[in-house]
């Protein structure tokens, strides 16, 4: 016999917050979000994805300011590595705040593997989240062909922090100058700054900060030309990045361009030496920790060696590829290259630099 039918209750009407998020695009460009975070309130589950570290940090900081307030806000914050058990994350999200009525903010960093390993449970959580907490997943990639993506698109907030196109950077930079440094950046100066420095947002923010120190309420293109490093400086940094990341062909092409442009070989070495010395210092700190019987922390060693916070993740990745053996040789390689360029070697100067790049860029053995 068939079961008697029972009337079903009408589905609940969506709340104002749910309607607001359902009207939003699947992902929100970071520039748009950061321009007015209040217009895009935090959902129970927020995804911050993309390789642009500066934008990701700004987005997470904006979410933190919204969710946490008051002097005791830090007590309602938990930051977890990707290896954290899922039960610990859910328990933290369900725990009521000890202070006031504020929600808890739980951040899982480098969460790509965390999401892959717990996708079904996260899908269930997005559908029925805890009202006590806000979960922020910091990802490198965010696949649009998954159910979790669609659930977050309809019920959560996904902020796109992928590297923006250069055309959009200049406009963003003008707003950043006003918000962060309380100085006006002219349109011409912003365009020139992006052309000279490139689309590295953290580096652009640093350059605007330095320019703001000497500007009289307004940064002009003339000031940018006088005070910001030339394209040759930028090419030297790109060359070093390419070598450290294994793109040796690209690094050698950039070196060749610098030589053809008349750049001094000693000048090129000087531009990349500071970065390599910091990496050498970090390697030494790691080796000293191991010799003392302590477990080394590469990220902490890089911070102590003076690596800027905006470049920690990139430099850590480069260091892991370089390896401790080559890292321990960096001081000697730099000293040898300097002496060779000053006349201790019969090799042409460009070959001395090529040899250094090959040492940095070849696969570890």
Strands ordered across the widest β-sheet: 1-6-2-5-4-3
Number of helices: 17
**Residue fraction in strands:** 5-15%
Distance between the termini: 73 Å
The level of helicity is: 55-70%
**Main sheet makeup:** 6 strands, parallel
Please tell me what the overall shape is.
globular
SSE series: HEHEHEHEHHEHEHEHHEHHHHHHH
Q: How large is the radius of gyration?
A: 25 Å
Tell me what the structure shows.
The protein is α/β, with parallel strands linked by helices. Helices cover about 60% and strands about 10% of the residues. It is built from 17 helices and 8 strands. The protein has helices at about 15-20, 30-35, 55-65, 85-95, 110-115, 120-125, 145-155, 165-180, 185-195, 200-215, 220-225, 230-245, 250-260, 265-290, 300-305, 310-345, 350-360, and strands at about 30, 45-50, 75-80, 105-110, 135-140, 155-160, 185, 220. The strands form 2 sheets. A 6-stranded parallel beta sheet has the order 1-6-2-5-4-3, sandwiched between helices. The chain has a two-stranded parallel ribbon with strand order 7-8. Helix 6 runs parallel beside helix 7 (about 145-155), helix 8 crosses helix 9 (about 185-195) and helix 16 packs antiparallel against helix 17 (about 350-360). The longest helix has about 35 residues, at about 310-345. It starts with 15 loop residues before the first helix and ends with a helix.
